[in-house]
Amino acid sequence: MAGHDIFRLQDVTVHYGRRTALDGVTAQIPCGALVALVGPNGAGKSTLLRALLGWLPLTRGEIRLGDKHPRHLHPRLAYLPQRPEVDWDFPISVRDVVAQGRWPSLGLFGRFTAAEQERVDRALEELDLTALGGEQIRRLSGGQQQRMFLARAVAQGADIFLLDEPFASLDLAASAELVHLLQRWLAQGRTVIAAVHDLALARAHFSHALLLDTHLVAAGPAAETLSDANIDLAYRRRMPVLGARP
Amino acid sequence: MSALHDLFLAPFGYDFMQRGLLSAVLLSISGGLLGSVLVLRRLALMGDALTHSLLPGLALSWLLLGRGPLALLAGALVAGLLSVMASALLSRLTRLKEDAAFGAFFLVAYAAGIALVSQLGTRVDLLHFLFGHILGVGPADLALTAAASGLTLAAFVLAYRGIVLEVFDPIFARAAGMRGGWFYAGFLALAVLNLVAGLQTMGVVLALGLFLLPAASAYLWCDRFAWMLGMSALLGIIGSTAGLAVSFHTGLSSGPAIVLALGAIFLASAASSPRYGLLHALALARRERRAVRHTVD
Predict the structure, then answer these.
(1) ipTM of this predicted complex?
(2) Is A62 helix (H, G, I), strand (E, B) or coil?
(3) Domain A1-76+159-246 fold
(4) Which of A15, B116, B187, B270 suits A89 as a labelling partner, its CA being 20 to 30 A distant?
(5) Is the pLDDT of residue B138 over 70?
């Protein structure tokens, strides 16, 4: 079962041209955890997410889940970029977007049976979108749009969710809703790995954390990893004038 | 009744008009499909630039290989590919951004094309090349058009899910392992194929009108992708039939006549679409102004 899997990162190093984006990161990320990726801008949070997806050529090192390369993990892996680059005026309904989650398994020709429809219904229900299924996607609020993509990932059958700054564009109420949802998923044994800027939020609501500053500063249970001393280590270099914590 | 008959049915009693109509209907179907992708991916202006760049390829293959549809197709394909690759290289290797690179390149290609066509002398009428010549639709042209339309329709039926994902959310397509590098290559090939097929009826530059105008119109009416595809094709058929009738009665070249008819449909859509039209936006603005005045009072 998914809960026993562990993402093993061994000396993961990524370069963009000459710039080092990730430098020798060795860590283990347990599945069935709610993991916050924390670090200053440019610390490699988004890069790590994309590496976990198997999208980036690693200069050194490797990433495995069990004995599998990330590229062979879908449909278990779902990814939500910081700002999905979709056209909100696209002629498509909320339900049709969620139904796309079934396509990777069905391929181009697999029949969309009643059982498939039911999975879509359940995903809509889980994310509280049933009433909005027929709406064109522009009519949703920001939080609802995010839930629509999460519902698509649920319909896909994903149990590992890689989220890039999911709290960045949410208001307080939507943030609270998302925290609630992520904790429910944690209780269900799902895995969430999310880039997070809000330290207080990461400390309070995430089970684990990875603190990055291109290299790995600390990793482990969230409260210990995000200690004041560690945060100083990760952020100080970026604020030479202030020399203070964010 | 008989006036309508004279206006819209009588013209299509002639063989050449029937061939023209059949060609336009076939192109409307594939054009509606491809045009919808162009509109949704914001490639409309790129498509416009591409049509202009086909001209030198068409003219050269005419000079060297004769005017068979296959020769023209080969010339256009080579010209299209070269232009796209050259402008992509320019924008990647120099300081120029993509739009400037494409714009500059396609202008030069178009000018070179016109120069070449005029060198063809009396054998070709530049106007026919640019704006279409319905009398020139022969059986071979019709066969090419049928092939272009059929291939496009088949591609959309077979790869529908891949196309939707690629147009709507390529990042999801990639994460889900449904990413197709085939998409843009296939799309470009189908676009060029259909543009060349539309050459006789529409002319090289205006052929894009059969892609773009029905799709832009349908976009204003539809909130579902599949409906938009169907409606684009339908509007294309209506517009090109009307345009051909106008062309028959007035002697206007078939390309401009069809584009003008499609343009009328487009303007009517932009004005009156119940959710996304101009009149709706104006009514909304007026209601808001009134609401503001009420609260101020």
Answers:
(1) 0.85
(2) strand
(3) Rossmann fold (3.40.50)
(4) B187
(5) yes
